Batch of 4 targets.
Target 1
Amino acid sequence: MVSSTSSLPSGPRGGPKHLNSSGCIIKSVPGRGRGVYAERFIPRGTVIEISPVLLFQKDEYENYGKHTVLDHYTFVWPENRMALALGLGSLFNHADPPNVSFSLDPPTESIKYTTVHDIQPGQELCIFYGHKIWFTPSEGMNTPERPVTPEDGWGGLGLIEAADTMGVAEEGVMEAVPRNPYEGGDPDDTINEEDLPFTRFKPIPEEEALESIRTVEAWVVDVPDPKHLGPLIKWIKQAKLESPDVAHLKRIRKDLTTKSTTLLLSLASTPPSDSPSVASAPLERPPLPDHLDLPEPYRAAVPASSALTTLSLELKNTIWPTMFTPKRKDEIEPWTRGQARWAWDAMRAAVAEAHSATALGEKPIAAHIAVSYKHSDDDLEGESISFTAHDTRTSTAHPLRHAAINVIRKLADYQASKYPAAPKSYLPIPGPSSDPASPTSTPPSTTVTPALAEPTQADPLAQNGTHYLLTNQTVFLTHEPCIMCSMALLHSRVKEVFYLYPMPKTGGCGSLTCLPQLKGVNHRFGIARWDAGSGVGGDEGVLRVGEEIDA
Ligand SMILES: C[S@@+](CC[C@H](N)C(=O)[O-])C[C@H]1O[C@@H](n2cnc3c(N)ncnc32)[C@H](O)[C@@H]1O
């Protein structure tokens, strides 16, 4: 017979894994016993567990409980009682400083556990037991001296409360950290577009103005005698000049005013590319059949893509007859509950970082490059490291130290350290900074030497010439990035940008202007604006900045 737990993932000691929806698992480690570990990234300020407690009266505990193993697990409770946390609550090991705070809630007879830092996947989640610990902490857990207070001891609360670190401390009152509304449920469930907590804008330009239409060069030939059209088209097939690159175009253009007919032969340059290093390469002029008396082929601009709207079709047809492929409704890829949960957590990470910034006297503006969405643990695709940064222009007195620039710089520095063999020509010299805005960084061009410019095999990013690429990555920002930051994000080839507060006077992602929609930019990215009132920002007032600020 198959046991009811046989399909569950295994946990410590071969038993089933604890089913915690906040990303916590139980693991056993020699020297520490069982402990609580993060299975995925958990943003700071996340309530990871609410454990109901079992209460012991004073005499009951003094006479019995205290003489049993329970003494390693119980918390001091008001009114001289002791409490045993059920669920994960009894399994948090001790650390000083901890990365999880806990607070007692006598009315509901429960203990709430909240992260006080961003937690990376695999990290242990620990609380602070107090200073009078009765065991020798395992290696790496020894901690700096702190003054012993009368409240110290197992159950000593209040040393690190999430509310303190969120900058809204008030005795006994925790800031209400908004719970992820997409916790639990089936991560594969599709969510209606209008039910998502943000509005997504189309990344593809509709090309509804003549100047926004992207073109590419093609070889064409005028065909003075219409009788030659049939044999020519047949010849194109035989000569294998048909190509999917021109499938969005019609083969023949008839100009009613000049009464001329022109035939499209093949592309004369490669289609526009998103890659900065790939230049549009000229393509050879195709041969023509000798037996037809035709003029020389010539190059002409043709639309680079089919028309998605009737207006765009009308405009494109003035350049060259183009195919009409209106967007079907189902072309917007629907989002799942799992993705929405991921996005919520990522935006929370940005929000939490902005709160830290305020505590440090900086502007409450932050950016978070999220770990790529993973459908399951087996999904190895995408980045597994996240980066978070806040605005530092106040402390550095450097007007360009915006959150988005800082987070790109963090990623770039990480990439540079990961690939130390990167050619010097690609690394900022001197110092570790790769920030183009850094006063200490020397422009790379001044450091190029032919001997060093050869990328090494160990450094795939260096082969692209940069460490700052965000290809396929999503950036979450508390505020709409300014024009400079939007351009930096575009330059870094970001896949999509989510922001919480629009900046009507300075925003470069839809408010003042929309950088990725401008003609001439060589990369386009998706934009999603978080809905006001979704609750992801927590206390809205803390993160508000003046309209004139460039975020
Ligand atoms: C509340 S329990 C925590 C869960 C426990 N590790 C288990 O497996 O049941 C407290 C006990 O965990 C162990 N412990 C907690 N923090 C530790 C640390 N930093 N180093 C070593 N042991 C620790 C001690 O044995 C302590 O009595």
Target 2
Amino acid sequence: MIYTVTLNPAIDMTVYIDELQKGQVNRSSLCIIDAGGKGINVSKVIKSLGGKSIALGFLGNDNKDWFLKYLKNMQIDYDFIFVDGLTRTNIKIVETAQKVYTDLNQNGFEVKKKDINLLFDKIDRIAKTDDIFVISGSLPPGTDEDVYVELIRMLKRKGAKVIYDADGKALESGVLEKPDVIKPNIYEFKCLFDVEENDLASIVTSAKKLIENGIKKVLISMGSKGAVFVTENMELFANAAEVEVKSTTGAGDSMVAAISYGLSQNMDDVSIFKLALACAAAKVSKEGVKAPDKKEIERFFEKIKLEKLGELKWI
Ligand SMILES: Nc1ncnc2c1ncn2[C@@H]1O[C@H](COP(=O)(O)OP(=O)(O)OP(=O)(O)O)[C@@H](O)[C@H]1O
Ligand SMILES: O=P(O)(O)OC[C@@]1(O)O[C@H](CO)[C@@H](O)[C@@H]1O
């Protein structure tokens, strides 16, 4: 089974506006509201791919009904721990004139020690060998900095596979626990290694250090500049698909969904990477934080070209 763990989910409000005027009253041309947060988005895309996951984590008691209805409508299974307060609302501003994407993320509800204990007990009870756990997103106030470290440790002890997508200090400490897969974007990767954004060779060399240390797959996403995938067996690069971008929110989560679904289906590395790029392309062509359709994902999958790095060969 695939489980997604979201400690800090969000109601994503994507607001479309021609051009934001700071310090003035702005009126949007379109507003789309979705249940989000990184792991939740992963569960949404796994569903589009025809897979099954259970969404775990925390959800605010005061506005949980809307959130749960959204997931029920999508037929996504969940098993949350409900905490006091509201699940945060994150604002995503899409300025259509210049194609500028701005995120305004809130801190989120306060989580108590007893809530964390409940979550760990739950995961301890359900995790089995070869389950896949996706751990992603920010930590809500009240959580210790090393909560992901402890979670990865516990899951690895139980023989579960861990896909990890966090940033800053949580990423730095989490990689030391050797999750099976990580999916940093280039800015997050730069917290780990001093690399230049355009220097593929040094990005690959750095990613290989993580592989030597026991992480099995590293996917570095680089927004419109594409992505690099380094595994025990290969080093691949791909350009981002040419697509009319309607919202970039959740593009990285779509890649994480593809990796977890691919692992659950025993796909090879080339297919996993192609699927990740196809899911991301299909996602960015959707408004708001809607999951892409399977047909769209398949259409992009056929078009993706990968470059085997070091071999100058496109596959
Ligand atoms: N502007 C864009 N045009 C085309 N493809 C894009 C664009 N932005 C993102 N993508 C695709 O989505 C992938 C993931 O994007 P990105 O690196 O921005 O992830 P991220 O920062 O983790 O995203 P998020 O945190 O919003 O989920 C990219 O590798 C690329 O394939
Ligand atoms: O504040 P975090 O937890 O880092 O990120 C939260 C978030 O930006 O991530 C998702 C996109 O990846 C959105 O659904 C959500 O609003």
Target 3
Amino acid sequence: MPLPKAELHLHIEGTLEPELAFALAERNGVNLPYADTEALRRAYDFADLQSFLDLYYALMAVLRTEEDFADLADAYLARAAAQGVRHAEIFFDPQAHLARGVEMGTVVEGLWRALGESEAKHGVSTRLIMCFLRDESAESALETLVEAKPYLHRITGIGLDSAEVGHPPVKFREVYEAAAALGLRRVAHAGEEGPAAYITEALDVLGVERIDHGLRCVEDPALVARLVRDRIPLTLCPLSNVRLRAVDTLADHPLPAMLDAGLLCTVNSDDPAYFGGYAGDNFDAVHAQLGLKQEQLRELARNSFVASFLDDDEERRARYLAEVEAYVF
Ligand code: HPA
Ligand SMILES: [Zn+2]
């Protein structure tokens, strides 16, 4: 039995495995410019975040109907459950779908078909987090929030993703204020490729409660001290960092030093279909290649539930935390 954990940094569009991409392409009459799944997998050789994002957005062409989004999410939840994920807070990128003529309702209700039955079917509780694309305009983000208003009963929070450098958090001040006024929780990607200053800005200007990635905080000791003091969670994604060349090899990843510094680190998969592994695979990799001890893996699992948005269900959080403490490696 795998270690129980929460996954807090997971883009549902990044769980599109080549096999499902081809199946959905056929169902929807979409032509993919790859001969087969092997040829597609060979394209997963990324130089940086942008080269990944180009393929990530292109493959979304196969996602058209509620059924497609439901199948995508259900496949993820089945895989996650098999790797010990008990709770998943799932990102989605509505602008990438709206731009292709797929409506907000198709995306949210499609995802919800799978999320709504996830507990009964997979034993995984879920939350949905709507991300804005930071390389799109602030106006577009505000319009997207308006489009989402009929579906806010399904959406726990907002996030910020896509190309980071040159798109600082302050660009999205207004939409984060509007979302806060609507009672939405706030997170943002910061310090993946962008500088540590973007992490500080996300905290100060956007009022985020968690930082997605946050890897580059290590370049700013005063920021590290603040993150430790304020118990700000970081949703790290080790295998993603290797595949997108944020670190040279997994052995170079600062996770052990970050844990030693007292940072509230969590380990997540980001875009598992593209980056070589789901949540449990990331835990296995930091154990095998970064030398994290079993008790450090338990700390990461504990942190994942502490950092989760289970504040509306403390009884459940306590149950999950008890599972972590009782786990025998
Ligand atoms: O790792 C990521 N970083 C930024 N944007 C993203 N969108 C999907 N995955 C990512
Ligand atoms: Zn991400």
Target 4
Amino acid sequence: MEAWLGLEIGNSRLHWAWFAGEEIQETWDTPHLSRLIEQQLAQCKTFADLPQEILSPDLNTSRLSPLASRLLPIYIASVVPSQTALWQAYPEAHVISLDKISLSGIYPTLGIDRALAVLGAGEAFGFPVLVIDAGTALTFTGADGDRCLVGGAILSGLSLQLQSLGQQTANLPSITTPEILFLPERWAMNTSEAIQSGVIYTLIASIRDFVTAWWEKFPDSQICFKGGDGKLLLEYLRSLHPEFTDRKIMYEPNLTFWGMRSYLQSFQ
Ligand SMILES: Nc1ncnc2c1ncn2[C@@H]1O[C@H](COP(=O)(O)OP(=O)(O)OP(=O)(O)O)[C@@H](O)[C@H]1O
Ligand SMILES: CC(C)(CO)[C@@H](O)C(=O)NCCC(=O)O
Ligand SMILES: [K+]
């Protein structure tokens, strides 16, 4: 089984998956790379030459050691052109572009992360499917039973909403997502919880509205959450609306990587 790396470049950070053929072995996240690393990427001859910055401290690198003497292909799905540019120098970098994705009805500026995630979800659970990516931006992306893009929506994600409130006002603190330990009181009595209440209850209401509208169109469709805040938001959606607990709605962090796998299979 050939080894390869999947790299999803998001607006906040990099998401990595190490594949042996079609199986994901490990996944991890790292910060964006600095421009200083470009030279090192250009000179990579084996896996061992790759900068340490791309490996996670939790990664069991001894499992990777059989790969050390080879240069692994890296398949890249990026929505951050300046970060994509750094990889141009790496001899085995393959940037995935929208034109080779097997979905119809795509518009030219659709994010490759959205296209791959909806493809990966549809391949795994069947079409029609709706993906809710709770990342830096929160996106809804749906495809119908003919693998045709239905469309979707883009709004500010959880962190971005909290951060922009803090940055653009004199008296409001910037709350970070690790500070959100529980579902706040809706009618909050302090500033921090009032911000959390405003952002979280409106986000959940928006998500519920999109989910309901999707199921009106496609009643039996699977809905998948992904992204850094996906697990938390699905948990809150379910605790506020228990009727969603038994429905076809789940969290699956690797949808974009599944989309990459299916993209690669389409060339075999
Ligand atoms: N260690 C972490 N670092 C950064 N964000 C984190 C972390 N853990 C959880 N998060 C949450 O993940 C969210 C970012 O999600 P994610 O990492 O999926 O975004 P992204 O893929 O970089 O962005 P996008 O795909 O929207 O361009 C933030 O809103 C934050 O609350
Ligand atoms: C919306 C984001 C930022 C989500 O990562 C990304 O998919 C993107 O840059 N999309 C381009 C615009 C679009 O999808 O219509
Ligand atoms: K921008």
